[in-house]
Structures are given as C-alpha cells and as structure tokens.
Amino acid sequence: MADQDIRKAGLKVTVPRLKILELLEKSGERHVSAEDVYRMLLEAGDEIGLATVYRVLTQFETAGLVERHHFEDGYSVFELNRGQHHDHIICIFCGRVEEFIDETIERQQSKIAQEKGFEIGDHSLTIYGRCKDPDCPNRDKT
Amino acid sequence: MADQDIRKAGLKVTVPRLKILELLEKSGERHVSAEDVYRMLLEAGDEIGLATVYRVLTQFETAGLVERHHFEDGYSVFELNRGQHHDHIICIFCGRVEEFIDETIERQQSKIAQEKGFEIGDHSLTIYGRCKDPDCPNRDKT
DNA sequence: ATGTATGCAAAACATTTGCACCTGG
DNA sequence: CCAGGTGCAAATGTTTTGCATACAT
Fold first, then answer.
1. Fewest CB within 10 A of the end CB: N or C in chain A?
2. What is d(CA A8, CA A52) in angstroms, rounded to the nearest whole number?
3. Handedness of CA B14, B20, B24, B26 (dihedral sign)
4. B70 touches chain A (CB under 8 A)
5. Cβ(A85)–Cβ(B87) below 8 Å
6. Which residues pair with B79 in a beta bridge?
7. What is the distance in angstroms measured between the alpha-carbon CA of B4 and the sugar C1' of C15?
C-alpha cells in the first residue's frame, strides 16, 4: 500500500504524502499536474498547501515513486511509476495522452547514444499528433 | 538572405527581426534561449528589448522559420529550421546538444501513431544521458 | 498617413523558498 | 521530545501583455 511505499522510499509517512500517493494510485488520471493534484485534494475535502504538493511530488520523483514529464506545455505533469518504461503520444488539441512501448525504438536509442559518445541515462520520446476521438476539438481545425 | 526569409514569412522586415534572424543564421550556437539571443544582441551593441525577442521568436516559430524545444529545463530553446527534421540527445550535466536522424525510429513512430488512432503531426524525441566530453562536469559525478 | 512593431514596466504563470508552527516516531 | 514536515506568503525565473511611442510601406 501507499503507506509502505512511502516508508520504503525513506520518507516519513505523513498525511499529505499519504493523500497524494493514494490519489495518484486511485485516480483515473494517470498524468496530472501539481495544480491538478492540489485541486483534486481540495475538492475531496482535504486540506493541503500547493507548496507541499510540489515538495512531495519532487520527493516522490527523487525516490523514484513518480516520473515527471514536461511535454510541450508550460508545466510539469507527474505520473505514478509503475516500473515499466514507456513513451507517450499526445493529441495537440485535446491533450489526450496514450502510452506505448516499442522495442525497436528502444534498441535504436541505445545505438545512437553509443555512436554519439553518450552513456544513456533516461530518455523521453513524445509524439505529437491529432487524435481521432469524437470528443476532440480537433474537428474544429482543418 | 534573412531579408527575404522574413518577407516570405509574411512579416514586415524590421530591424529587430533582421538582427535576430541574422544572429540565428550566423551564430555558432544552434540551440539558444530567448535570454541568450537577448544577451548576444546586447553584447553585439544592438538595442533590443527582451519582450521583442520573445515576440519575434514566437512569430518566427509560427511562420516555421524556427523550432521551439522545451528540453527538461525550465525554459525554451529555439533553433533555426533548416528544413530537415532531426531529434536530439542531450547531456544532463553540461547541456551539450547533439542532433541525429534515424530512419528506423521515424518509421516506428508513424506506425505507432497509426495504431493509436492519431494523425502524426510533429514529434520530438529527446534522449538524456551523460556525455564523455573531457570538459563535461560529468566527471564530478559517479 | 496609418497600421504595425517596439520598448518598457507591470502582469501572469509555474515553481521554489523562508520561516513560524505543527507532527510523526 | 525534536528532527523533519507543513502552510502561508513572499520570492523566483520565464514568458506575456498593456500602452505610449516609433517605424515600415
């Protein structure tokens, strides 16, 4: 449970940390901003400060509990680390995020890093496109 | 020349636009932030406002003259659009940016977009790693 | 001339930090 | 009890905007 995950990360189990981790585990939203987390907790009737949300998410990131992504917006989005690396494809109109894994791409990336004289650490591949979801404001555009 | 490129983009040819585009074309630095451009122009003795740099770079981006990247820092970097798509590999210690193109990856990306029900528009792949450059502060770390 | 572009200062954002108070172990 | 965590407000760094002035055509 969240309780154990926090302890394992070497962090004290406090109310804010527990609430945030539980929200990430239970929410249907996999990719959320700090503001999102803050708002969702307030709406759920919890008391929390936005600064704490940022601090906790950063600690979780350092501990490897969550991953931080930047996507080409002006803010960070966080997602629970489920242990399995994956990349993202995002609709530039509705912001819908889908995940995928592609072995061929993974292999090519290692190859390129080696050719360029880099030790590969982390990488992130994001494809931007227009999704065909009927709810997507996509249709307003050409 | 820069003159024509600006006109072709449907923009009036003004001194700030010309200075900025020339700087991008002539500078050895391919990936620069708005601040970088601002500072470089001031150092070159030109008069310009930071707000103008941001406005012009945004217009250039819209016009397709430059590309804006986010990389996992807190600011945007711009690069002249040389017409040839490419991806980036970045050292997380010294910030060195290398460019590459990989047909295999390009093909896989189209395939994935199709599978996920997206029309691929733009995409960006960034690999983060540690470079082996002797000047890289890399060596201070494990 | 005249609509657009610029520069400055102020605003807007997302995120971080200082500090007095509270809390978990 | 006490190191560490929290909330608030203020600071930060980047990017945007309002407005009076200056410029390109």
1. C
2. 20
3. positive
4. yes
5. no
6. B67
7. 41
Rounded to 10 degrees, the C-alpha dihedral B76/B77/B80/B84 comes to -90
Residue A121 identity (one-letter amino acid)? G
Q: How far is B54 from chain A (nearest CA, A)?
A: 15
What distance lies between CA A72 and its chain's CA centroid?
Answer: 13
Residue A115 has what pLDDT? Answer: 95
Dump pLDDT digits (tens) for B35-86.
999 999 999 999 999 999 999 999 999 999 999 998 888 899 999 999 899 9
- Residue B142 scores a pLDDT above 50: no
* Sequence-ordered list of residues with C-beta below 8 angstroms from that of B106, at least 6 positions apart, any chain: B85
Residues with pLDDT less than 70, chain A: 138-142
State whether the Cα torsion A54-A55-A58-A64 is positive or negative: negative
Q: Do A118 and B132 touch (CB under 8 A)?
A: yes
Per the CB < 8 A criterion, the answer to whether B124 and A72 are in contact is: yes
For residue B140, the model assigns a pLDDT of 55
Using the CB atoms, write b or e for A46-73: b if 16+ within 10 Å.
eebeeebbeebbebbeeeebbbebbbee
Contact (Cβ atoms closer than 8 angstroms) between residue A46 and residue A63: no
Average pLDDT over residues B118-127: 83
Between B98, B123, B127, which is nearest A126 by CB?
A: B123
Look at strands B118-131 and B87-91 and give their pairing.
Answer: parallel
pLDDT confidence tier of residue B105, bands split at 50, 70 and 90: very high
pLDDT, average across residues B105-116: 94
User: How far apart are the CA of B104 and the nearest CA of chain A, in angstroms?
Assistant: 7
* Helix then strand then coil, % of chain A, to nearest 5: 40, 25, 35
